[in-house]
Give the backbone structure.
Amino acid sequence: MLKNYNTVCKQLPGFLCRYFKPLKMDKFTIEIEREGKRFEFAIADLMHHSEKCKFEVYSSGEFVASFEPDGQGFLHLCKNTGKVDREFLYLIADKIEIYNLV
């Protein structure tokens, strides 16, 4: 996250950089097992999300999808890059819901 913050600040005029604040987020990993193989995904919980997408999903450091919660605490696909099978995404959403972070 700090790398992205520094990259953005270098592109802004000096006086604007002090007003730019990186998003606060918690990160954790989950594992999905499918057909005898284990897959690991990093989940970023955007605690102060301004958009509707609250959870971002990364595979090997690359953004693959994000989820938004509904009023009852169930997650729905918000953004999908198409890099991960939808079945995996549903399994990821189920795992995140188990943590009761919504």
